[in-house]
Amino acid sequence: MATTGSVHTEGADIVYDHEGAGPLLLMISGGGGAAEHYARISGFLAEHYTVVRYDRRGNSRSTGDTTVDLDMAQQARDAVAVIRAMGGDEALVFGNSGGANIALQLATDHPEVIRALVAHEGPTSPLLPDADTWLAFADRVYGTFTAEGAEAASKVFATELVGFDAADPQQARVAAGEMTSNAEFWLAREYLPLATFDPDLGTIRGNKVAMVTAAGRESADAYYARTARVQADRLGCPYLEFPGNHLGFIFEAASFAAALREALDDLTSGTAS
User: Fold this and answer.
1) Cα(118)–Cα(232) distance, integer angstroms
2) Domain 3-126+197-269 maps to which CATH number in 1.10.10.10, 3.30.565.10, 1.25.40.10, 3.40.50.1820?
3) Helix (H) or strand (E) holding 16
4) How far apart are CA 241 and CA 168, in angstroms?
5) What is the largest CA-CA distance in the chain?
6) pTM given for the model
7) What's the pLDDT tens digit per position in 3-43?
8) Which residues pair with 17 in a beta bridge?
9) How far apart are CA 201 and CA 243, in angstroms?
C-alpha cells in the first residue's frame, strides 16, 4: 500500500507516492507526468526498493503554473526536491520517455543525487542523423494540437509508436492515439520542450554518472529507441534491451521490473557493461 506525501518547491506542491523498503528508487514519468503510470511496476519493485513516483508539476495532483512551458532545469530541481523530501541524499533513478530526458537533465545539473540511472527511450531527436525529420514530426504534432485539439494531435503522435500489440485492447488503445491523463497540458506546455530536448552529453559524461540507456525489444528502430542507442554511444555507457515496447513497464511489468533490478544491481556493483 503506497503512502502519499508532498513537497512545496518553487511555487508548486509536488505530490508523490512511495512504498516498499530498501534503497530509494525515483521513477520519473514522461508524457502525462503522472505517478500512476508506475503503479503496476512499483508493486514488483517495492520488495527490493523504497519506490517513489510523483506527479510532475502541473500534472494530476501536483500544482504549478500551467500557463508556462516546461522548464527542463526546473524539472530536474523538482526531482531533487522529491529525493530530499524522502530523506535521501541520493537515489537510484529511472526515467521513461520524456522522464528519461528529465533524468538526463538531472545528470547534467545534479549528478550528486544520482546513485545510478536507467534512461529508457528518452526521445532526444536532435541527436539523430535524421534529426530534421523528427523535429518536423514534433512540429506536426504540436501544429495539429493548436489547429485541431488534443485528440487529433494524440492520434498523429501515435502514428510513430512501434511494437504495440493490436490484439491487446489496452495496447491497441495506445496505438490508436487514445488520449491519456493530462494530455491537454502535455501537448500545450510539455511536448515540444521534451521532444526537442538536446542533452549536454559532454557534461553528463564528465560528471561520471553511473548509468545505462535502454529501449524495449519491441520498439525496434522507433526514433525513441534509436535515440537511446545514440545516447549510449556518445556517453560511452552500456545500452540495454528491456522487455516490451515504449510502455513495457505497464504491459510487461514483472519482466520489466526484473530487467530494471538487474541493471541497477550491475550499476551499483560496478559490473555494468
Assistant:
1) 11
2) 3.40.50.1820
3) strand 12-20
4) 22
5) 51
6) 0.97
7) 999 999 999 999 999 999 999 999 999 999 999 999 999 99
8) 4, 53
9) 26
